[in-house]
Here is the input.
Amino acid sequence: MGRGYIVEDAVEGYLSKLCQQQAGPVTGLLIGQSSAQRDFVIMATRTPQREESTAATGNSLDKEWVTEHARQVSRMLPGGLSVLGVFIITDTDGKDTLTTVRQLVFAVENLISSEHLWIPADDDVTDCVALHVNPKTRKTVCRTFDVKDPKSVAKPADWKYQSGVCSSWTTVSCCLNVDMLVPLPNNRTNAENMDACLKGGLEAWANQIMSGVCLIDGKKLLEDTELSAGQKRNVRQTYTTQLLISPDEQRPTDVVQRCGGSVSVRGTIHSRAYIHSNKPRAKLAEKLLKRDVVSTVATRVQMLLEELLTSEEESKNSRDKQQNEQFCLPRRVFCPVKAPGPVCVCDYHFSDEGLSEVTDRLKEMLDVDAAEEDLDTKQEMTAEITEKNTINAEPTVESDEVLEPKRNNYAGVAVGAAVALLATAASMLYLNDV
Here is the structure.
């Protein structure tokens, strides 16, 4: 018997709707959570149309576009949710379809994992799913591939629909103060060099997060402690956590080295993770929450850098006039999924955007119809750039007013030297030249 997949009923309705509408091959992503025993699929989302598609016409698929869609979607998933695999709706059967979905599965996983800043755990599930649906016969074929094995062959898997898959999932959340300083190279005209320095700084910070102590409802629980022990079955549980972070023995700021500036990220972020209701353990809750902390900070820094690259000339002119720069990182906004339960997806809202742009992205990337009033915008506040912070090469203690993490505050990012970033809520990013 192959791996089992418990799938939310809404996914069946969604795929059936796509079968009725499709005029050619339709691809998309399957979203949910893995566990040692089985996987839980709670959402499916089709690949959006590419405005200027470079793909060949006919039945050929734009694999590059599918994988980029997966990368964008993975950024919109809180802790506990991930892209489990892909689906394809086509009336073409046989080896060609199997080869196509295999290529998509590996390409999607490789791109998503390339952005992870943590070391994979021994108990991480490495099987990804590929679902083939024939729109005429509605026949469904489910297979899995071990993405850590380049020679992996397709294995049959069990695909079963069920209602209320995530209705009683556990939610764990925390607020965390972020204070990170990353040195930048002297030559900041090389984008790859800049990116490598920032990634290295983020990885060092991520290691501190992953090695931190996690308190669940104020207690340090043993790894095998069952979160729902003593609780009523199928009752939704919510836990508040704290992350206690010990700095490395030798921090980057303690090392004397030549650099062209620094990036400073400061503020308070809101993080959360969802855990399946099949005897969830404290170890899993801690792992998923820590990964969400790392992912949400790294995603926002990457998003801001991408924004800056699109206006490179303007940024250069600005840097010629002043040595220090600040930018606001986007705040995190949550939106409930269609399936019953506590699970939400998220997006990142820049200060110069309207909420309608968030709902547009949710529709385009996740095919979620959301109204502005459906969005939870209260977890993080929008940071403000002050004249004092613009002048200071190094943010002073006064610029970090939030001594204790607060639910409605978001961390700030400061960038020194090459690029400056500012996060939402109370977060800022400064760029200082040396």
In short: The chain is about 30% helix and 25% strand. Residues 282-310 form the longest helix (29 residues). The first strand starts at residue 4 and ends at 8.
